[in-house]
Amino acid sequence: MVGITSSISSGSGIPVVDLSPFLAAAAEDENMAVEKKKAMEAVKEACSEYGLFQIVNHGVPTALIDRALQLSADFFDLPDDEKRKFTSNPAGGAALPSGYNSRPLHSPEKNEFLLMFNPSSPFNVYPTNPPHLREVMEEVFVWLSKTGWLMEGIINDCLGLPTGFLQQFNSDRKGDFMSVRRYFPAAEDEDRGLTPHQDGNSVTFILQDDAGGLEVLRNGVWIPATPTPGSIIVNIGDMIQVLSNNKFKSSMHRVVRPKGRSRYSFAFFYCLPAEKWVEPLPEFTEKVGELPKYRKFQFGEYTQLRKRDVIDPPQRPEDSIGITHYSIN
Ligand SMILES: O=C(O)CCC(=O)C(=O)O
Ligand SMILES: [Fe+2]
């Protein structure tokens, strides 16, 4: 089936979009053009209503996704001493410490993670156990970079921007990173995995196992991103919201830890390079007679401000720095 859109009735809670009409292998016939149009409408609705949706037939091999999640679980199952051997020296130069880390004990969020940057980056610290985890993480990184390029092209067209504009605007891949995570089972009185937040980047891609727990806020209601085998979650980040002057929505999402089992996920952050200046594009401001909703800023400045949230998380989510920091009222 091609180009399906669904809403809450899909059973997965969030919209599902089939990307096969956009893949290079898709035949350029009339039928495919219709399917492409339908899929575009689905993405448009998903980006303006939810900011978070699932994609299927995206080109990333399902076997790779399953293997990656399994190997990460094998790693996180190792004793703490063993995992700590793969933690970077904070003086390494990366914006965040690469390799293994866990949230500070006082954090309201309860998870541990492995952070990696572009495979060619000298900052990366990889576990040697399980032996194939490194190569699988690198493969996932490369695949999701391709998905990022594809998705930014689709978002670009859905926003009605000149062909290839976003991909050109964001063609430098040095700022991307990936977080491989384990969420511990919920305690009797406490189930926070990730507190409600919006992602500060362009687009995030999430691979999740079958535990569930990721939720998106829509019209005041938390909607589950129920796992569908082989699917990838697409999350619109703050940069798309700013560039589109709020036409597309940076989703408010959270992770609630499931009871009785751990949850494993990969989150790949498709970013902008730090030096890039960002502001609402003229297509959504002066060309349509609208005032910009954000002032101009450098992406790197915003990520530096947000870094504090990761290293020293505030007790209340409302104390986090978010995109409203740049709002023009
Ligand atoms: O692990 C997940 O499912 C979500 C991760 C996430 O939202 C984030 O890292 O910003
Ligand atoms: Fe997030």
Automatic annotation (TrEMBL):
PANTHER family registered for this protein in UniProt: 2-OXOGLUTARATE (2OG) AND FE(II)-DEPENDENT OXYGENASE SUPERFAMILY PROTEIN-RELATED
Protein's recorded name: Fe2OG dioxygenase domain-containing protein
Q: Which residues form the Fe2OG dioxygenase domain?
A: 174-272
A Pfam family annotated for this UniProt entry:
2OG-FeII_Oxy
Write the lineage as a comma-separated list.
Answer: Eukaryota, Viridiplantae, Streptophyta, Embryophyta, Tracheophyta
Keywords in alphabetical order, please. Iron, Metal-binding, Oxidoreductase
Give the similarity note: Belongs to the iron/ascorbate-dependent oxidoreductase family.
- Establish whether keyword Iron is in the entry: yes
Query: Native species of this protein?
Result: Linum trigynum
Task: Mention one GO molecular function.
Answer: oxidoreductase activity
Matching InterPro entries = DIOX_N (IPR026992), IPNS-like_FE2OG_OXY (IPR044861), IPNS-like_sf (IPR027443), Iron_ascorbate_oxido_reductase (IPR050231), Oxoglu/Fe-dep_dioxygenase_dom (IPR005123)
